[in-house]
Amino acid sequence: MKEARPQSLILRQRKNHLPDDIVLDIVAKLPVKSLLRIRRVHKSWYFRITSPNFISTHLNMLLCHNQGYVIHMPSINLDNQGLKVACDHMFDGISELKIPFSFQSGLAFLVGSCNGLLCFSDWFNDVFLWNPSIRKFKKLPDTCLSQLHLAKLGFAHHSQKNDYKVVRISRPFTEPMPPPEAEVYTLCSDSWKRVGISWRPNVVFYKFSCVKPFPFVSGHLHWMLDMKEKGGGQEMRYIEMILSFDVNSEKFKELPLPNDHSFKDGKCLTSVKEKLALTKFERQPHGMLCCIWVMREYGVCESWSKLCVVPIETRTCFIGFTKYGSLLIQKKFQEICSLEDKYVLIDPETLYEKETSIQAIHPLVIATYMENLALLDGTNVISY
């Protein structure tokens, strides 16, 4: 005859919860606001939700769902640093956010957006990371390089370590110009370090040829440069090239642009459906043509292919592409920007146009956006 089991043991067994891995899998699907409330219930929940492994798992869950957009409108008015969040790919349901920090220059630039973590900088190269979904931000420590040089910044996510990096390339104003200098900030170390750039020996002048955020594609950041190089007979050669930075290895390399000498009235490096892309423009008697090139296989120069040519109006400003591949442009009714301007989405294949609900006086910068737990805890993080 079996001995009766103590009642207290039976009750404890009946009250057992689901295994931890199943519970965490369920919790990881919750939105950020719910997680912020749950972590206050018990100390064990706090440590689980703030752990790097959980934050990474939660991020991977969110990446499977639709993402929205942030729309930044730079303004020299300190009280009007506008940022809007669009909930869907048609830019409907737009809500407004106020940037919770300010720059001494009075002008903020959106460096980039990775998984909902935003990076901003200004003329004096102060840099902030900001997560609006958890209402936290931090100012990055001072850089190693000279603040007097012209600098271009890129922002990237290191997926292998679930870390975030800011890359700063510094260009002096002297001629002939020495090679650029570069440094990398990593969020996990909260520090900058210098990295080398492989550089052509005979370059006497170079400049960055696009003012929009530098695209982060296939684990690489990209800058487009116009260069003047001295040849063997002292003649000058003009070169266009892409400078690529591998976020994993932290090494730079060159990528050539597509072999296309037409469309000479402007160009911009961007991305289309997670592919590196180049938009080129050419004026026509009754408008403009926008030619879109895409690198089908990353790093393979022969894979550059012309996606399409889109006719657009003369008074048009290129804003960027949505994650679905639609072209967002600004149709100007005057030479200067005004609230009468229309922001239109164009399907490159059908040329179908749809007007959005975006209203802005200043030029726009758009980037993808999603909720994220990054910056939940860390050094010098400020809540507001």
Spell out the blueprint of helices and strands.
Layout: H1 7-14, H2 20-27, H3 32-38, H4 43-49, H5 52-63, E1 68-73, E2 82-86, E3 94-98, E4 109-114, E5 117-121, E6 127-131, E7 136-139, E8 150-158, E9 163-171, E10 181-186, E11 191-195, E12 203-208, E13 216-217, E14 220-230, E15 236-246, E16 251-256, E17 267-272, E18 275-284, E19 287-295, E20 304-312, E21 316-321, E22 327-331, E23 342-346, E24 353-355, E25 365-369, E26 382-383
Antiparallel strand pairs: 1-2, 1-25, 2-3, 4-5, 5-6, 6-7, 7-26, 8-9, 9-10, 10-11, 12-14, 13-14, 14-15, 15-16, 17-18, 18-19, 19-20, 21-22, 22-23, 23-24
Outline of the structure:
This protein is mostly beta strands.
Name some characteristics of this structure:
384 residues; mainly beta; Monooxygenase; five-stranded antiparallel β-sheet; 26 strands; 11% helix; 42% strand; globular; disordered N terminus
Structure, described:
There is one protein chain. The protein has 384 residues and is mainly β. The protein has five helices and 26 strands. It has a five-stranded antiparallel beta sheet with strand order 4-5-6-7-26, with no helix packed on it. Strands 12, 13, 14, 15 and 16 form a five-stranded antiparallel beta sheet that branches. The N and C termini lie far apart (66 Å). Residues 1-14 have low confidence and may be disordered.
